[in-house]
Amino acid sequence: MTAADYIVDFLRAVGVRQIFGYPGTPIMPFLAALERQSDIEWVLMRHENSAAMAASAQARLTGQLTVCMATSGPGSANFICGLIDAQLDRAPMLALTGMVPTYNQGHSEFQDINQAQLLSTVLPMSSSCVHTRQLVPLLRNSVGYAWQNQQTVHLALSMDVLTAPTGTNDSLFRIDPSMIPHPVQLMPPPDKALDLVTDELAQCVQVVIVVGRRATGCGKAISQLAERLGAPVITSLDGKGIVNEAHPNTQGVLGIFGLPGLECTRQIIQQAGTVLAFGVDTLKPFLTDDDDTQRRKLIQCEPNFNTLSLEYSRIRTLVGPLQAIADGLASRLPEEPKANPMIADFVEAKQAHMAEIAELASFSDEYVHPANFLTKLNKYLDEKTIIVLDTGVHTVWAARYLQLSDEQPVIVSSHLGTMGFSLPALIGIQTARPDHRTVGISGDGGFQMVVGELATAVQYKLPILLIIFNNGVLQNVKNQQTTPFGTYLQNPDFVALAKAYGADAARIDGQTDIDSVLEQAFAQRDRPFLLDCRLDPELTIPLSRWEQLVAVH
């Protein structure tokens, strides 16, 4: 057995089932080890950055350790954007890179760079393994750190280490289940802590519940808590879909790339006295106004201590399984739903807003209106659907008009806001959930950054649905320019391009029977389907001053 075989066995033991990467000479021994087994699948991406984003999206969905891999030199350098995105969104991920043999390191050999040093500038742990006896502790430490801290780590492996024999009787390389790192599982908070928070909530004026991505799976418990508190529920973008958006207490999204949400949603948070936050990364849109000063009290609920906010003051803190916290708080409150006039006002405003969408069906013969399209798309999204959003104006439309009622997760590049995220993310998620349908929404600019990954999706027969909002302009940037410059795109025929790759595709404009095309797209089960939605390049979403200040562009 070689060291490469040991790494494969170790990763299999911790539950890794795919490795997303791009090959090169220094990692050839590792690929040979993968070929000698069948439990871990090698997913050949078309760019290392895409490999990192695919693994990152899979980690965000599952909470499990994922792996991406690249070769030395340019391969590892190409990782950087995807690794930063993964780290900022706290994805438990291991990035492996190959290095030239140890005797060729450090004296200007071809594709020899100090990869551990390079990636240490963006990751909390980045190490090099240049001797076989280092491998076991470095691998254990890297995996343990990534999993327990929900962070991204890097380990560089010299080619001669990968080919080195480990010795059949060497106890160091024996995989002991008791030595395999696992995430720390915290106990629920003690009853006294829950009692204190319940008493605090009883005294608070106008409580608003805010939900982020770490509350995945807690939707029903949070909705019950909201009913008993009479509290509106607002989500961050990556928390969208966790709570049923058809529930009357659920009142929209704040803190997205561009317009933070409906005007009535913004008014609700501005009238709040206390924010009860479940698993929220970015608290600024919920706690501050345009002067960046904390205006609302914060009660923060988090699954781990290392995700607690250090920027804002908290009046109470609960750490532990979020569903147990939501259930524990709800059980201490009267079962009778508590009325709140703000909720009734929001429901009325939302109904009036949605009624306006029906008039958009005849918006234009040439272009489809995104609100009309997304409202029709809602009918096809069920509990087996996973949503991925890229970064751009299309994200704003999706946050507003997608209505998710079956706790469908929404995966997004929350902190870095990188364009080109959706297609690699669809690949990473679909391989992890083959019985689900992953649906991505991207702009034409972001899609063209990673268009080659259509070949990956076709090669692995992934039934992803990628929706392109095609308006021929980088609209988020154009909207901020006094005189538009350098933002108009000359696009190819996306339908013909997708079919050239071997995918199915269709175009949607103002005259298209949208339901007919969506039925065709969702019926496809053995290859990708691309929808080219033609949008009016002059259609914009205006941003108020407050909204511009909290927006991420």
The biggest sheet amounts to: 6 strands, parallel
Radius of gyration: 24 Å
pLDDT < 50 stretches: 543-553
- CATH topology label of the largest domain: Rossmann fold
CATH class of the largest domain: Alpha Beta
Helix count, DSSP H or I runs of 4 or more residues: 23
Number of DSSP-assigned strands? 18
In the CATH hierarchy, the architecture of the largest domain is: 3-Layer(aba) Sandwich
Beta content comes to 15-25%
Distance N to C terminus: 50 Å
Residue share in helix: 25-40%
The structural domain count equals 3
- Please state how the strands of the largest beta sheet are arranged side by side: 2-1-3-4-6-5
Instruction: Kindly name the structural category.
Output: alpha/beta
CATH homology group of the largest domain: Thiamin diphosphate (ThDP)-binding fold, Pyr/PP domains
What is the approximate shape?
A: globular
Rounded mean pLDDT score: 91
